[in-house]
Amino acid sequence: MNFRRCLLMGCIVGSAVLNLSCEEALQPDDPVRIGVLFQTSAAFGPHTRGAVHAALIVNSHGGVLGRRVEILVRDDGGRPDTARDAAADLIENEGVVALIGPLTWPTYFSVYDYASQRGIPVIGIDAGSWDRWSQDTAGGGAFSPRPGNERIYRVAARHVSTEGLCARAALLSIPMEGTSSALLVAFEEELQAPTELVYSNGMVPANIFDAEEILGPVRDANPDCVFANAGNDAAWAQLVEGWAAIGGPPVTFYSLRTRLEASRILQELRDPAIVTGNIEVAQLSNEPESAEWNWFVRSQTALFGEPPPQPWTSDFFDATAVTLLAIESAGSTSNFEDALYRVARFDGGAPSVEVPKAASDIPSALSFIRSGKDIDYRGPSGSFDLNPETGRMDDAPISFMEVVDIRTGERRVLHIERD
């Protein structure tokens, strides 16, 4: 069937369906519903447009299994209890076949604990980075486009050591039970001469803190670089401003795992220029010069009137696209976990088959799958190579980005670590 261009008729974030319909419509009954959980009340709602975008493309080319796709968005409030209640509503009352989100580990696990008992897979956005992931999702059905935090800590330590970028390192880890010690070990194992660890602490500033009490010991250790996983932009702002307030000497600050979000940093800092020269060590969320990313920006701008907010819009797009392609590949809306791995990573079973990779080529990917061929999905965030043993992207590229101007979002790529 030659499906004509699909039109986005409505986009209501909240308890309502994000309505997708086509000029030559799919059957309105019995849709395939995907639930999206995110902190839409915290101004993160526009990030979920990525899920809408992917569904729009799929609907314009026959839907999945001949059925229309609907995206249902719920606000998880950033709270485990709210997220669990929203997941229950989506599963029990709306009949979703998969959930995408939430963002943080506590909210993700609350949702996963409920959904996994009902056979509903949950593709987290950032949850895979937490170190309790493997033990707490051993029952299966858990997926994330993130590597574990240990990989980021190891890559950071290895790079600054081998390149001689830091002689005296200080590490502020994360205040979460059972994780700080493992991350410290991972960091220390990769440090090599001439770099030495002169200070470490199992916590970072959170909310209001006493700069002298928290950062004074770091200053007294006289480091020339400080590594920290602050967890959010407000905490990072407190860290760098606190360092200046106590008379800390010039150091290079490395933000582990977290990209600094411009609009929030501008709200938090009296002098945004204070983050100039800070280095972000995190998963490479997109490659700005890639064809996939450039297509995504153009397409999102045409659909929604503005470029996609980052860092999560492309994650929602990729997670939704891979989920829908997996359902098509499995021929079913249940028990499609194996198909997720199949479409996310080319299994090499048919080397003569051409493999479409671009997000803009989802129609070709659907065509390949419908003809029994394999694909290796690649989207605006890059590859989506899920590790079958963990459900995460454990070999994701890690980038070192220097903040040149937070006000314009300008960064300079210093290094990209690829396994």
CATH class of the largest domain: Alpha Beta
- The dominant shape is elongated
Strand runs, count: 17
Radius of gyration: 22 Å
The helix-and-strand class reads alpha/beta
Low-confidence spans: pLDDT under 50, at least 5 residues? 1-24, 349-359
* Largest sheet properties: 7 strands, mixed
CATH architecture assignment of the largest domain: 3-Layer(aba) Sandwich
Number of helices in the DSSP assignment: 13
Q: What is the arithmetic mean of pLDDT?
A: 81
Task: Provide the succession of SSEs.
Answer: EEEEHEHEHEHEHEHEHEHEHEHHHHEEEE
Give the helix level as a range of percent.
25-40%
Strand order of the largest sheet: 10-9-11-12-13-16-17
The total number of structural domains is: 2
Under CATH, the homologous superfamily of the largest domain reads: Response regulator
> The CATH topology of the largest domain is what?
Rossmann fold
Strand fraction: 15-25%
Distance between the termini: 42 Å
Structure, described:
The two termini are 42 Å apart. The chain has 2 domains: 235 residues, Response regulator (Rossmann fold, 3-Layer(aba) Sandwich), CATH 3.40.50; 160 residues, Rossmann fold. By secondary structure, the chain is an alpha/beta fold. The protein is built from 13 helices and 17 strands. It is elongated, with a radius of gyration of 22 Å. Helix 11 crosses helix 12.
